[in-house]
């Protein structure tokens, strides 16, 4: 059964009434300033936001809130909302916490079921509303998240999987629904433990480097009291803004060759780069990032940004440029003026996860090259943000700073949610796929 956009769902009209907007409303210009922060009540497909660094409140302008959502079963008549002209349908359900997704060149959809420790494959026939095959590709993994095919192109030879503590790979030929043998270890040890267990993986367009995102182990740099050999010595031997102690090689994007050799650091100070993606046209590396908690409802904005090699993005001493974290006042004056400002600031605490760029031909032309990011949803905010999929606007391959709601409707009320988006991927036929790990579903969006 295909679920189509419907703004008058019986019994849930109040929840989704805001989704009934006209195309003209969607294009009337972004919300700016205080209005751009908002919360889930203002979310609806087509609503655009533009948050600028100068719009940020001071730390502690509002109290820091603990407001964990209550997951409920998806109401029988509930479906996500999409913009006018788009359709959304339930593609797969009954999955075990589906998270990151990657699509093989033949259209097979590889899905990380992280807590179950396995990778699942769904075979999708172009245009079909349901998968024709559903099989476990590999199991016995350690909190897998990132998936990548290598080398890029029509005939990859390997499937790489980023566990929370390592990187492994499986020999692969197109059409494989099950791994032929045990995985080969590529990187035996990644920093792990504490918080932020997701590790995503991407290869540079020339296939020469493998990039791995590793989030921080804490919110505000616990376990970093003393740098080995003293701060001056540490600074002289490590990349700009590199952390130490239990946070060594964390809040970073790490670099290796495809065999796991030549380790290095690509960029630093990115608190938790969950979604790692390379733009298909420009070749730019992007991160979809969870920023820090504890500074109030609207601090610190999550972000999606191009990641420049050698750049430092602030964590833990600064945020969004030269804004100093009050918990680390005066600790690193040497870094002031050296912090890269992210391209697209998002509503704080939205928990921005999976990221992809639209490279299909089934959406209107203006979507080509734009990004889609999954917002898993807040816990550290008095009124919820996130719980949706957003569209990142690019112009001539460069982010404009503006983003808009693309899929909403996962929140039931101020307490309850039935869906938490995690992964986004472009299917072989140009549909957009969205995974969510609260109800264990994958949704398919067409135009």
TrEMBL record:
Protein name as annotated: Pyrroloquinoline quinone-dependent pyranose dehydrogenase beta-propeller domain-containing protein
Gene3D superfamilies: TolB, C-terminal domain
Signal sequence, start to end: 1-26
Source organism of the structure: Bradyrhizobium erythrophlei
Keywords noted in UniProt: Signal
Region named Disordered: 53-73
InterPro entries per the UniProt record, alphabetical: 6-blade_b-propeller_TolB-like (IPR011042), Beta-prop_PDH (IPR054539), Quinoprot_gluc/sorb_DH_b-prop (IPR011041)
Domain Pyrroloquinoline quinone-dependent pyranose dehydrogenase beta-propeller: 80-295, 340-446
Pfam families: TrAA12
PANTHER family recorded: HEDGEHOG-INTERACTING PROTEIN (PTHR19328), MEMBRANE PROTEIN (PTHR19328:SF53)
SUPFAM superfamilies: Soluble quinoprotein glucose dehydrogenase
